[in-house]
């Protein structure tokens, strides 16, 4: 085998050519990190709302100038650019409290508050709004010192990718159902604050056959050890053979409030599922799955808390 020659033409016995020199490094296998399998407890919900993002960059101005308003509206799924331009011309679009009618207006979607017909539109692509179906037995925490399964396990890959997520309020370990997860701090704060009175809806399977007149008692208020509590709405869905299924709606979030309220009137809860936060519904989402909230859901949450 011929060996590489030095500049003077004599062979170099110590230099060799590596056969793979210059070749691309081996690709990492999907789902593995550092050769170790990466596990995730998150399952995709059957129905997802995936935002469609344009690859065009012609409307992107110089750094600091923002993006044309009609493109921002189109990317947010409000309407096509042509229709968005008509909305702007008709004075239906508001940016940071000011009605905009000129077509050349540029905005920074990361900070701008945009409304169409008075309803806020989410235009910041960095904001994340998720619906989680928390399984029974899981903790409403981002980590657990005792190693119990928790919400943080389900969103671990998103957090590892740089999303700073947190859950909106809590569900106790034995309660399952809808829990919102987001990085939208102001929205989360208002959703949890009792002054905004965002209703939460629960299905409860309870002991005893609940009389329908019990709704009047719960709507009037029941005295608990930490003060009175009452339901906004209450209905009996089924009652037979010593057990009942009821639907209860309330807007306060004291610890174990639904369980304590129903136990106080003589019907301890055997199973409890939260089905709605405001108008956002759990639907048929599987336990342990995440679903990206659609534009209508997020808009309804903003409207409920006055954002």
UniProtKB/TrEMBL annotation:
Listed InterPro entries: PsdUridine_synth_cat_dom_sf, PsdUridine_synth_RsuA/RluA, PsdUridine_synth_RsuA/RluB/E/F, PsdUridine_synth_RsuA/RluB_CS, RsuA_PseudoU_synthase, S4_RNA-bd, S4_RNA-bd_sf
UniProt keywords, alphabetically: Isomerase, RNA-binding
Catalytic activity: a uridine in RNA = a pseudouridine in RNA
A Gene Ontology biological process term: enzyme-directed rRNA pseudouridine synthesis
Pfam families, per database record: PseudoU_synth_2, S4
Disordered: annotated span: 1-65
Domain RNA-binding S4 stretches: 67-128
NCBIfam families: pseudouridine synthase
Protein name: Pseudouridine synthase
Organism, scientific name: Tsukamurella asaccharolytica
